[in-house]
């Protein structure tokens, strides 16, 4: 074998090793079905071949490009994503609402979207305050800031769901009396189950929801700063506002319940 060929082979091997090492060291990004922040079209309950998208998903992908990250984002059940982010190093998680109970468990990289946590009621239900529905069946996303808040307030009839469209369906069918979720998720979920959002009984704005790209608690400060700087640059050039606006006005297709498959059949 010629020396040149040997040298070329060594260069290729070195480049591959470097690429593999870089991939192993980059932030592992996790997401879940949280439309319109991060989701698939069509969703996993309908097809295994949906396209990943979402306001937070798109913005984080733009950030990834600016920090030299591959942009790979893994989707999985929301509960599992949080468990991994809380127990392993080198994890990024989107889209996580920053709340007092979560504060000590994560590194908070950047507030990607600001939304309102709203209380929504069925027809004739007084949702002017949380106290009005304390003894009524109330839907929340499982292991969400909304669920934690209701448990802290002593609610006894909490109805957690794995995805918000399930809460939308339950509210539409009067299986729950109230629903606590970020406004954009309420509007998307209700449209997705064929509901008319103009008829929604939206009451109290319970608090502001800051939807973050967060990370493992031990994430290095320089890694946090790289991603944060990328986000600030995207805010400054208008990219963040443009992406958020495009999803705020999104009108998803209605998905009939009979087309959905059980969540346990989904291959993540």
Features:
single chain; 268 residues; D-Maltodextrin-Binding Protein, domain 2; 10 strands
Explain what this protein looks like in three dimensions.
There is one protein chain. The chain has eight helices and ten strands. It has 268 residues and is an alpha/beta fold. The termini are far apart. The strands form two sheets. The protein has an eight-stranded mixed β-sheet with strand order 4-1-5-10-6-9-7-8, with helices on both faces. It has helices spanning 3-25, 55-67, 78-87, 145-152, 164-172, 183-192, 221-236, 239-248; strands spanning 28-31, 39-41, 51-53, 73-75, 91-97, 107-121, 138-141, 158-161, 178-182, 201-215. Helix 5 (164-172) packs across helix 6. It has two domains: 26-114 and 210-265, Periplasmic binding protein-like II (D-Maltodextrin-Binding Protein, domain 2, 3-Layer(aba) Sandwich), CATH 3.40.190; 115-209, 3-Layer(aba) Sandwich (D-Maltodextrin-Binding Protein, domain 2). Mean pLDDT is 89; it is low at 10-22.
């Amino acid at each position: 074998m010629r020396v040149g060929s040997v040298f070329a082979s060594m260069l290729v091997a070195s480049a591959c090793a470097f690429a593999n090492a870089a991939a192993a060291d980059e932030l592992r990004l996790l997401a879940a079905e949280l439309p319109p922040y991060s989701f698939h079209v069509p969703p996993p309950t309908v097809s295994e071949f949906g396209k990943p998208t979402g306001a937070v998903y798109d913005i984080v992908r733009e950030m990834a490009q600016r920090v030299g990250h591959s942009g790979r984002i893994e989707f999985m059940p929301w509960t599992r994503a949080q468990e991994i982010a809380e127990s392993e190093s080198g994890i990024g998680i989107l889209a996580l609402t920053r709340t007092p109970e979560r504060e000590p468990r994560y590194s908070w990289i950047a507030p990607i979207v600001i939304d309102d946590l709203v209380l929504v009621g069925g027809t004739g239900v007084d949702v002017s305050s949380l106290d009005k529905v304390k003894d009524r069946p109330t839907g929340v996303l499982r292991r969400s800031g909304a669920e934690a808040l209701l448990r802290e307030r002593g609610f006894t009839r909490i109805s957690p769901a794995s995805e918000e469209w399930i809460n939308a369906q339950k509210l539409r069918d009067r299986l729950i009396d109230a629903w606590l979720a970020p406004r954009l998720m309420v509007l998307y979920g209700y449209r997705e189950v064929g509901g008319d959002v103009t008829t929604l009984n939206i009451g109290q704005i319970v608090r502001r929801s800051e939807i973050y790209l967060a990370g493992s608690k031990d994430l290095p400060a320089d890694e946090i700063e790289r991603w944060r700087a990328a986000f600030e640059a995207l805010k400054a050039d208008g990219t963040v506002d443009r992406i958020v606006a495009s999803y705020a006005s999104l009108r998803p297709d209605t998905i009939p319940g009979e087309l959905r498959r059980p969540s346990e059949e989904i291959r993540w």
